[in-house]
Every structure is written in structure tokens, then in C-alpha cells.
Design goal:
Rossmann fold, globular
Length: about 300
């Protein structure tokens, strides 16, 4: 891979993928809607060309993908637009890859797996989700499988990390960084999985460099599981934050959903805060190598430091 296009480069995982590619000496086209934000994020990067555009415009995507070897699809759109726009987005991205004769690496989540039976979830786990958004992710995977380009799909747990703004943990950390009263989404005593975005980026870029990784799905777990109360304690200690952190319950989100369509769409996914899905990364380790796994203590500190610098 000599040149790559990162779609959604201004988001959490997209930003981390750009950083990982640059660190490997690969030329990058960073694509997102906001040119101003990308220029701020990638100021001084020699191997990064910033291109702004609309992912729902075939011409914008085709122009951005010209002469690239791999396209990384890390675009995130609001929940309320998923049903209408996600299939169109996937078809546009596949079309751009086909025109450019490029490979495609897709950043995916765990929604398609639905509920866990208590075991770690591997790639053979049946995709029979009970949520609307889980069913959409299954449909998107089916679209990707019919693509006439090499495609790999990487499934990740919830993100946290530098510039990972639209995440559950960022919601908690943002208030703490500003020394304001903060809240944590879900039961603080339940152990859950959160992947540090630079680890996820290392894994998907490594996959993209392996020809035999295409045509398959890959589960990329985090560095184990952690209780919400432990996440909070690490952050408190690092920030010298002395306020208590309360809990956002499902009932609270449901109530907010009466007034906010994004909150309304989020309610069905809150089962993941009560019945965590934990990924099995055995396939990656058997075929690719050791999984990147930054300890939570270190990852949380780096994330908070990035947020403090960005204030």
C-alpha cells in the first residue's frame, strides 16, 4: 500500500487510521466534510492531503479515490439517518473503490451480533440482531459481500481515544476535563469493553496490508474489559477530579428521547450497557499476529491529555 484514502478522517477512528498510516510512511488522503477541522488536526503532516467533500456524492468520492490503493471507510453518521442513508453510503463507497480499482477496509461495530450468550463472540457467531440498527449493519455487510472489489470488515467495540468525540466515554470525560459534574452511561459495576482508537487503527491497517485478509470479517477486541467505576477512578486520579460521577440510566435516555431524536434512537442500543458483547480476537492473532492492546490506564490518560490540549 503506497497511498490510502481515509473517509471520515475527522472522526475518532478515522483520525487514528490517518495517524497510523502516516507512521508507516504511507501517503494519505484525509476526507471529511469539514476541511477546517481536518486542517487543524493534520497541520504539519507531510504525507497527508486534506480533501473535503460529501460522502453521499459519487463524484466527490470518485475524485478523492483516484490513484489510491486502499479506501478506509470510517464514516459515522447520526443514528436518525441510518435507515435512509447507510445503504446509500455503503454503495457509494464501494462504487468509488471499484472505479479506482482499490481495496476497501470497513470500520464496523458489534451491533450485528445482537445479544451475547455470555461467551466471547467470534466471527462465526450468528448475526441475528434484535435491534433496528443491528439489522441495518447486517444489511450493510451483505451489500459489502456482493462488491466487485476486495473488501474486509473489522468489528470493534465502543471507541475511546484522541479525537473520539461521539462516544460514550467522551461524554463522561468531557465534563471531567472541564471540572464539571459528570455522568457515566450505564451500570458502573458491569465490566464492558472499550477499544483505544490507536489500537484499532493499528489492527485494521495491518489487516489491509494482508492480501488474504480481504473477503473476510475480523473481530478486534480491546485490552480486556473494565468496570465503569474503574474507568472513572483512573480519570479522577489523572485529572485530580474530586466530584462524584452519577449514572445515566436507560429511563433517563428514554425520557430525553421524547425531545431529542438522537436520544430516542440510542435507547435500543443501551442493552449493550447491561449485557456486554465481548469480542474474541483469536482469528486475528492466529492469522495476523499479536493484537495491539494499550492498557486502559495508559489509554485513558493519553485520551484525557489530548482533550486538555484541545480545550
Amino acid at each position: 500500500m503506497k497511498k490510502a484514502l481515509v473517509l471520515g478522517a475527522s472522526g475518532g477512528m478515522g483520525y487514528a487510521i490517518v495517524e497510523e498510516l502516516v507512521g508507516r510512511g504511507i501517503e494519505v488522503i484525509a476526507f471529511a466534510r469539514s476541511k477546517e477541522k481536518m486542517e487543524q488536526l493534520f497541520k504539519g503532516y507531510k504525507n497527508v492531503e486534506v480533501k473535503s467533500g460529501d460522502v453521499f456524492s459519487k463524484s466527490d468520492l470518485t475524485a478523492a479515490a483516484k490513484n489510491v490503493d486502499v479506501i478506509f471507510h470510517a464514516v459515522n453518521i447520526p443514528y436518525s439517518e441510518w435507515a435512509e442513508k447507510q445503504p446509500l453510503l455503503m454503495k457509494n463507497v464501494i462504487g468509488a473503490a471499484h472505479t479506482a480499482n482499490a481495496k476497501l477496509a470497513i470500520v464496523d461495530n458489534i451491533y450485528a451480533y445482537g445479544r451475547s450468550d455470555g461467551r466471547k463472540v467470534n466471527e462465526e457467531y450468528p448475526k441475528n440482531p434484535h435491534t433496528k440498527k443491528g439489522k441495518i449493519r447486517v444489511h450493510l455487510g451483505e451489500i459489502a459481500k456482493t462488491a466487485k472489489v476486495p473488501v474486509l470488515i473489522a468489528h470493534f467495540p465502543d471507541f475511546y481515544g484522541p479525537n473520539a468525540l461521539n462516544t460514550i466515554l467522551h461524554y463522561t470525560f468531557e465534563k471531567m476535563v472541564h471540572n464539571k459534574k459528570s455522568m457515566f452511561v450505564g451500570n458502573q459495576q458491569i465490566s464492558r469493553e472499550f477499544i483505544y482508537t490507536p489500537d484499532g487503527a493499528k489492527a485494521i491497517v495491518e489487516l489491509a496490508l494482508h492480501e488474504d485478509a480481504y473477503g473476510q470479517s475480523w473481530n478486534i477486541p480491546a485490552a480486556g474489559v473494565i468496570k465503569g467505576e474503574d474507568v472513572i477512578e483512573i480519570a479522577k486520579k489523572h485529572l485530580q477530579y474530586d466530584k462524584s460521577v452519577s449514572t445515566v440510566t436507560k429511563g433517563m435516555v428514554r425520557l430525553l428521547g421524547i425531545f431529542d431524536k438522537q436520544m430516542k434512537e440510542a435507547v435500543e442500543m443501551l442493552y449493550l450497557t447491561e449485557e456486554p458483547v465481548v469480542l474474541d480476537g483469536s482469528k486475528y492473532e492466529q492469522h495476523i499476529g499479536k493484537l495491539p492492546a494499550t492498557p486502559y490506564t495508559e489509554g485513558i490518560k493519553r485520551t484525557l491529555d489530548f482533550m486538555k490540549k484541545s480545550r
